[in-house]
Amino acid sequence: MILAGFEHRPGVHCGTTALADALRARGVALSEPMAFGLGAGLGFYYLVHPGFSPSHLFCGRTLRLEETACDVLGAPVRVRTEEDPARAWEGVRAAVDRGLAPILATDLAELPYWKTRTRFGGHRIVVAGYDAARGVALVADGDREVLEELSLDDLERARASIAPPFGAPGRPWLEVDAPAAERPIGEAVRDALRRQAREFLLDVDGVAGVSALERFAAELAEWPSRAAGEADRAWCFRYGYQVIEKRGTGGGNFRALYAAFLEEAEARVPGLAALGLAPRMRALAEAWTRLAGMLKAISDVPGGLVPPQTRALAAAIARDERRYHEDVAALVR
Q1: CA quadruple 300, 290, 205, 71: dihedral, nearest 10
Q2: 3-state SS class at 57
Q3: How far apart are CA 20 and CA 30, in angstroms?
Q4: CA 225 to CA 230: how far, in whole Å?
């Protein structure tokens, strides 16, 4: 079976595309940028994994985008886990039978249609249907134009993986429904803006939020240690370029996608444009794109050092992102 009227609209980011697909299945239509913005989707995680390559990595989106967007919209969302493989699939199948489009966390390297060996835990897909007789699930995934057939064995391997950066135990999935009543867009946008600023400024441990971004900028000169080996060193910088410009970010480390949300919101919420948030976010996206080019250039030179201008740009980005979120926290009421 396949969900009646299910419509997948390809997008740039797996999480917001999945969320928009799941909401659309319940009659709630959002653009991908709006879904990202209402989910307070901007983030920064800086992770070091000795023995894993790349040993140093970062990501520019938040972990709780889907749950936050649903909370802002007033849409019921249930986060489920299940250690037993059979019961994990049965839970997803039952959700589809109830007319929901469950969002699953997977490892990109375990999805055969991606044809990649690079692991990426936490990649979001949506189950739109299944064929029990053939043992396959029909899934919607990111920028892919059509539903993909995935054997239940392959799906189980993808769900069971806990690969970095966001792989989690328990085969997690989300069941999203429509809100009982539509929330005014201006109220929802302002709520999301406040949450975005608060969450980005909250963490002070150097792993998440602005403190992680500042730590990344401070450590970039010696990042990563040469003791990890030249191959890992090159891959860390190349991977940094990819997670800024490729890998479903929409460019500029998700900042271009968030700028598109702000532009759409400014057209719909009176008074928002006067705050000048969208141009500032566009400038941040462009700065991230410049940094990505610098990281890629470093990866192409064996033993390449991090030039002063690269370190300076990373520090400027960290400074400007802190100022942006501090201003939003002060301005948006």
Answers
A1: -120
A2: strand
A3: 6
A4: 9
Q: Give SS3 for 31.
A: coil
Q: Where in the chain is the domain with CATH 3.90.70.10?
A: 14-30+77-176
Six-digit token string for 201: 């400024």
Task: Give yes or no for a cis peptide into 112 (omega within 30° of 0).
Answer: no
Under the phi-then-psi rule, with left for phi > 0, alpha for psi from -120 to 50, and beta for the rest, what region is 253? left
Joined tokens for residue 332: 């948006």
User: What is the CATH architecture of 14-30+77-176?
Assistant: Alpha-Beta Complex (3.90)
pLDDT per residue over 150-176, tens digit each? Answer: 999 999 999 999 987 778 999 999 999
Q: pTM of the prediction?
A: 0.91
Which of 163, 36, 27, 22 lies closest to 100, judged by CA? 22
Angle (CA) 188-176-1 rounded to 5° is 145
Tell me the pLDDT tens digit for each residue of 26-39. 999 999 999 999 99
